[in-house]
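Contributing new complexes? Match this layout with PRP.
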Amino acid sequence: MKVNIIEHPLITHKLTMMRDKRTNPKDFKSLLKEISLLMAYEVTRNLPLEDIEIETPIMKITAKVIGGRSIGIVPILRAGLGMVDGILELVPSAKIGHIGCYRDPETLEPVEYYCKLPIDVEQRTVILVDPMLATGGSAGMAIDFIKQRGVTDIKFMCLIAAPEGVKALNKKHPDVEIYTAALDECLNEHAYIVPGLGDAGDRLFGTK
Ligand code: PRP
Ligand code: URA
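Output block (do not edit by hand):
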């Protein structure tokens, strides 16, 4: 099983606050944004650098800036939306795409209802974001759409992954690196992550 678990006391603490069922949507939203920012630091660790010439107040130098491909951030609606602003604080020039899909409660299969990606998405490194990787159906389908548009460099970032979802995504898209803040125990009979944090979209938007 190939997965990068981003462990840091700040992330662990904030994730515990998000798991707590007493946390209200306003705080849940703030915590999701903060964790996304902290995780983005690790997810972007291997971005290539290139040389530019600049002049400090003292002298001319050759210094490094981020080069290579531009970044695209693609949230899976709805809950992925809560991760965009945190990443944008670190990578403000990123373009944003959106993929809408929900899990059919009966079949647990993902159902797509929206897909709008940046026009030049194939030239970008895409960071696909969704707080929850449960069966892996939604992320797997979203990656299918992104690859159909010619994207070759995709990273998937979530907060909580189930081993079942990691295995399914590794199998379907072995080239996509998975980054998560936690790898939980398993899925329950409704394919919810155990112990998880419940329904991320409902907790973020207060819809239940
Ligand atoms: C949740 C979550 C993921 C998906 C994960 O969304 O945000 O997109 O479930 O489950 P999977 O790995 O088994 O596909 P949901 O389908 O509840 O839609 P919502 O965000 O609109 O509530
Ligand atoms: N979707 C969620 O929002 N939470 C889960 O635990 C599983 C799927």
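Reviewers usually confirm one structural detail per submission. For this one: The pocket of uracil (ligand 2) is lined by residues 132, 134, 192-193, 196, 199-201 (CB under 6 Å).
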